[in-house]
Amino acid sequence: MSNRRTFLAILALTTGCGRTPPQLAPPEPPLVTVAHPATERWEMFSESTGRLAAVESVDVRARVSGYLMKVAFKEGALVKKGDPLVFIDSRPYEAAVMRLEADLKSSQAKRDEADLAFARAKGLATRGSGIVLSR
Question: Looking at residue 76, what DSSP letter applies?
Answer without folding.
Answer: T
